[in-house]
Amino acid sequence: MDYAGVFTDPAIVDVVRSARAKGLRTALLSNADRRPYGLPDLFDAVIVSGEVGVAKPNPAIFELTAKSLNTTPDRCVFIDDVARYVRGAAEAGMTGIHHRTVESTMDELAVLLDL
Fold first, then answer.
1. Which InterPro entries does the record cross-reference, listed alphabetically (predicted)?
2. How far apart are CA 87 and CA 74, in angstroms?
3. 53-107 pLDDT, tens digit each
4. N or C: which end of the chain has fewer CB within 10 A?
5. E runs forming strands in the chain
């Protein structure tokens, strides 16, 4: 996933849609100053650090994101291409995936979420 884009590969959009079709809730967490414009309707929650006053990799933002989905961090999977952000999510109790390629991320999600 690429926030700036917002998504650079349609396969990622398909994975998010598949997760939602299975009843999983989704969130976009960004260290941006403000909410991205024109997001696809894929997320139950959008958390923007500039709006909430805390940023990745602070575990508090991951806890806030989980809470926005009415769940706990230990029931969340977090994906990011920045390793220290993935470590922050893990410190908060989330399962982290360090995104390197679309294929590897999709493979990990398929296993973790049975997609």
1. ACAD10-like, HAD-like_sf, HAD-SF_hydro_IA, HAD_sf
2. 14
3. 999 999 999 999 999 999 999 999 999 999 999 999 999 999 999 998 888 988 9
4. C
5. 27-30, 45-48, 77-80, 95-98
